[in-house]
Write a structure and sequence with these properties.
By secondary structure, the protein is an alpha/beta fold. Among the domains are: 110 residues, no CATH class; 162 residues, no CATH class. It contains 17 helices and eight strands. Strand 2 and strand 3 form a beta hairpin. Helix 5 packs antiparallel against helix 13, helix 8 packs antiparallel against helix 10 and helix 13 packs antiparallel against helix 14.
């Protein structure tokens, strides 16, 4: 038994509410169950309930047992002073507010149809399922599933927006600087994303703007701030970069202490931080207005071409300093660019459009035109339900659903879980 199940029972009145009485025998008439609160404080705000002859307006708190009120120290918390009803599965002790007034209690154990409880137990079976509803997911109504996944995608965008909003505050609303930092983070992928974000945020973006056409300066700046020029190699290119970085460090008072050094371990060579940083430098060396290109959704094909960059010179025969190999092209792949569009371009434009008062629909529609990511979570969902649309909007939504709902057993907060509970699970 979990509290989220009791929230479900109360929210949808899935109990014999006509027979509801307080533990003291007073009749309970529910006019409004209140607004479900997902944050701290009472579980439902602004309920309207008649207890006996008195109509009350206030909050509702829900627990498995009445004694949980004291276990959670609500008797000393003023946020719970306005609780008008305590809803519990089992009543084991009378409870009082901090000023010693009794809180009316409703016990649900004998008011719930056993079929509802059995459905809940089936959904939350102790079997080792990948997700709780794995057995039932393939049969979910496609329209209802698609509608819920759209909401999941917007939650995903809101989640990604938090980083962008924080970066805007740090940079004094410098959109170009924020875009550069986001691109850097996602060029670092999961392994080096945070390190690349630190690197991109460790110097004033105006240094990049002043040196748009000077690739060697951009390379020296990024590699130097990443701590990748601290060793000593005899080849001329390395020594040239190191000399350039010393000059830049003195000129702009650069500091790279405290920056997490990018990792090479267990990465495919094409994802080595040296190569990804050089590709990022290539973008800013070849395009002076990356911000304009990224916010121009009318030419998505053109933007993809802008991100199709490849390293040249020294890096055609090196993945790292000091180790030469046969010449090989190292170009950003369409798969990699797709990830950049999904994780940088769309979230960035989502926040930008909202801040500028522009419509959000064009931004979201781009996600429907991009192919879904390839990873184990997304693949598993599509195995369970092959008729789901295969695009970036849905794959991002599925990732959010798995991490924020399925993995946390939040079935009762999920529209799909609730719909299954209300159906005939077998």
């Amino acid at each position: 038994m979990r509290e989220d199940f009791l929230h479900y029972l109360w929210k949808f009145k899935k109990f014999k509410f006509q027979e509801a009485r307080t533990t003291n025998g007073e009749e309970i008439l529910i006019s409004e169950v209140g607004m479900h609160n997902q944050l701290s404080g009472p579980d439902f705000f602004n309920a309207r309930i008649k207890i006996g002859k008195q109509l009350w307006a206030g909050n509702v708190e829900i627990h498995i047992k009445s004694s949980d009120w004291y276990a959670h120290h609500h008797e000393t918390d003023e946020n719970y002073d306005n609780v008008i009803l305590h809803v519990v599965w089992q009543h084991d002790v009378d409870i009082f507010r901090k000023e010693n007034s009794a809180v009316p209690t409703l016990e649900l154990e004998n008011l719930v149809n056993m079929n509802v409880l059995e459905q809940y137990n089936r959904l939350n079976s102790t079997d080792k399922n990948w997700i709780n509803c794995e057995k039932f997911f393939p049969e979910l109504d496609l329209f209802k599933t698609d509608r819920w996944l759209e909401r999941m995608y917007f939650e995903r965008l809101e989640e990604k927006s938090m980083l962008i909003t924080n970066l805007l505050k740090k940079t004094g609303n410098d959109w170009e600087a924020v875009l550069f930092q986001l691109l850097a983070k996602n060029f670092g992928l999961n392994v080096n994303g945070e390190a690349f974000l630190q690197i991109a945020g460790s110097f004033d973006f105006r240094i990049i703007k002043k040196n748009f056409s000077n690739k060697k300066v951009l390379q020296s700046l990024l590699l130097g701030q990443a701590g990748l020029l601290e060793s000593d190699y005899e080849d001329i290119y390395f020594q040239d970069l190191k000399k350039n970085y010393r000059y830049l460090k003195h000129k702009y008072t650069l500091n790279n202490s405290g920056i997490t050094k990018p990792r090479f371990f267990r990465l495919r060579p094409d994802n080595f931080p040296t190569i990804r940083l050089m590709q990022l430098a290539e973008i800013y060396a070849s395009e002076q207005n990356v911000f304009r290109e990224v916010t121009n959704f009318s030419d998505l094909t053109g933007l993809i071409r802008k991100f199709q960059v490849e390293v040249d010179g020294y890096w055609l025969t090196h993945y790292n300093f000091g180790r030469e190999h046969r010449e090989r092209k190292k170009k950003t792949t369409l798969k990699f660019i797709n990830l950049i569009l999904i994780n940088t371009v769309i979230p960035f434009n989502f926040v930008y459009a909202r801040k500028m008062g522009k419509p959000l629909e064009p931004v979201v529609e781009v996600a429907r035109t991009l192919i879904a990511e390839e990873n184990s979570v997304v693949s598993r969902f599509y195995e369970l339900k092959p008729n789901l649309p295969s695009d970036a909007l849905h794959s991002q939504a599925l990732l959010h659903l798995k991490r924020n709902y399925c993995d946390k057993n939040r079935c009762m907060d999920c529209e799909l879980g609730v719909s299954l509970l209300q159906s005939n699970l077998k």
